[in-house]
């Protein structure tokens, strides 16, 4: 019995360590897309905080994990990262540095228009923008806070106006 216990304990320890490493790898956020060679702690914090809120419900005018509208979500996440941005999507669209979709990095904001007569109708945060597509996280009326790949979505591509960068 004594000869079996040490190898069994070693096997359990190795298994537990490898499982922890796999979880850490799956939770790692790539902030180096778009040829950025140095990761940004602020971008990492933005995406980490945003992902924590996935599944939160939609609430018109909502600014807390109890319920968010689109701009309430982005302003909340930026605030959690220690970055002050305006509350409304139209005000957010008027600040920061304007960027194109191709230049968007994790943490940048994208702005959309649902109807031709509207100015800004929606805001979302870029999670990743690389060869695998562009993933955003946003608060939607139908599913609340969710991550979505918009690179192949005709719906979102037709409505995308521009992006804004608040983090260098």
The first-level CATH class name: Alpha Beta
CATH homologous superfamily descriptor: endopeptidase domain like (from Nostoc punctiforme)
Oligomer: single chain
Number of E-type strands: 8
Number of domains: 1
Order of helices and strands: HHEEHHEEEEEHE
How many helical stretches? 5
Trace the largest sheet across and list its strands: 3-8-4-5-6-7
How many strands, what sense, and barrel or not for the largest sheet?
6 strands, antiparallel
Helix proportion of residues, in percent?
Answer: 25-40%
- Bulk shape: globular
Radius of gyration: 19 Å
Ranges with pLDDT <50 over ≥5 residues? 8-38
Structure classification: alpha+beta
Mean pLDDT: 83
The percentage of residues in β strands lies in: 15-25%
**CATH fold label:** endopeptidase fold (from Nostoc punctiforme)
Descriptive notes:
- With 168 residues, this protein is an alpha+beta fold.
- The protein has one domain (32-165): endopeptidase fold (from Nostoc punctiforme) (Alpha-Beta Complex), CATH 3.90.1720.
- Helix content is 34%, strand content 24%.
- It has five helices and eight strands; from the N terminus they run ααββααβββββαβ.
- The protein has helices at residues 5-27, 41-52, 70-80, 89-93, 154-159; strands spanning 63-64, 67-68, 97-99, 109-112, 122-130, 133-140, 144-149, 160-165.
- The strands form two sheets. The chain has a six-stranded antiparallel beta sheet with strand order 3-8-4-5-6-7. A two-stranded antiparallel sheet has the order 1-2.
- α2 packs across α3 (70-80).
- The longest helix has 23 residues, at 5-27.
- The model is unreliable at 8-38 (pLDDT under 50).
